[in-house]
UniProtKB/TrEMBL annotation:
Record carries keyword Flavoprotein: no
Similarity comment: Belongs to the PpiC/parvulin rotamase family.
Organismal lineage: Bacteria, Pseudomonadati, Pseudomonadota, Alphaproteobacteria, Rhodobacterales
Lineage: superkingdom: Bacteria
Entry's Gene Ontology molecular function annotations: peptidyl-prolyl cis-trans isomerase activity
Organism: Paracoccus limosus
Protein's name according to its UniProt entry: Parvulin-like PPIase
Family matches, as InterPro entries: PPIase_dom_sf (IPR046357), PPIase_PpiC (IPR000297), PrsA_foldase (IPR050245), Trigger_fact/SurA_dom_sf (IPR027304)
Signal peptide annotation: 1-23
Pfam families: Rotamase
Domain PpiC: 133-223
């Protein structure tokens, strides 16, 4: 009777990848490669990390065989790296930290945002705005001195092309190569002197030189438009993404703030170039 029961249990296990039913846990060995174990836990973790399109339509048996074959090959090749070099050890530690940090933050981001959190994000984004707001599309040429800005203004009045001058003379590394274009923005997003100058311009007009903490600007208003804030229900999905991002950022800041961090002083940044420290 006991033998029959054990035989039935073994058969049931065989239906699940050939594993005994009473031994199926994360440490269950599914294969060994030169004495190194490949475990059921590793297989499941690998399965969780696979793209859904890769596994779509594959029966469990085929997926099992495919994954186990890959795990065996990977293990056999990886063993050639033993003993680990300093470079390999350092790289694996980086990968470990990245994975564990990602795992922690994934749990933070997985929580479904509440309605109150979504509404708070909406209010933060639009500040209770119910009426249309003006947005501006402008370009600028940024230089260091008023003399340079005056010279640029003179060239523009003489018929020079604004975009060409921006590419040639603007010190703004972002907008300069793009003919000075700043894209669409609301005036409140800019420093006050710049914002006031933009609001005073008509479409196509170019400002006199304007000074801010960044230098001297010559500004051209390309266009303006009225923008009505979207309704709450229309952007709930986007708000959920933002809430999750904010939670992740807050979790990072909290953990860093609570950590005891000690930086070794007086290390030369040029040490980054001493690749020989890692050896072969």
């Amino acid at each position: 009777m006991l033998k029959s029961l054990l035989a039935a249990t073994a058969l049931a296990g065989a239906a699940f990848g050939g594993l005994p039913a009473f031994a199926q846990d994360a440490s269950t060995v599914v294969a060994t490669v030169n004495g190194e174990s490949v475990t059921l836990g590793q297989m499941i973790a690998m399965r969780q990390g696979m793209d859904a399109q890769t596994t779509q339509g594959l029966p469990d048996t085929a997926l099992w065989d495919l994954m186990l074959d890959q795990m065996i090959r990977q293990t056999a090749v990886a063993q050639e790296a033993e003993p680990l070099s300093k470079r390999d050890t350092a790289a694996l530690e980086i990968e470990k930290r990245a994975y564990l940090a990602g795992s922690v933050l994934e749990k933070v981001a997985s929580a479904e945002p509440t309605e109150d959190e979504l509404k708070a994000a909406y209010d933060q984004a639009f500040g209770g705005q119910t009426t249309p707001k003006l947005e501006y599309d402008a370009a600028h040429i940024l230089v260091k001195t008023k003399e340079e800005a005056d010279a640029i203004e003179k060239e523009l009045k003489g018929g020079a092309d604004f975009g060409t001058l921006a590419e040639q003379k603007s010190t703004d590394p972002t907008s300069g190569p793009n003919k000075g274009d700043l894209g669409w923005f609301q005036a409140e997003q800019m420093v006050p002197p710049f914002a006031e100058a933009v609001k005073a311009l008509k479409k196509g007009e170019i400002s006199a030189p304007v000074q801010t903490g960044f230098g001297w600007h010559v500004i051209k208003l390309i266009d303006s438009r009225e923008v009505t804030p979207p309704k709450f229900d229309e952007i709930k999905d986007q708000l959920a993404v933002q809430v999750r991002r904010d939670k992740v950022q807050a979790a990072i800041e909290k953990r860093v703030t609570e950590s005891k961090i000690e930086k070794t002083p007086n290390l030369d940044p040029a040490l980054l170039n001493k690749t020989d420290i890692l050896g072969e």
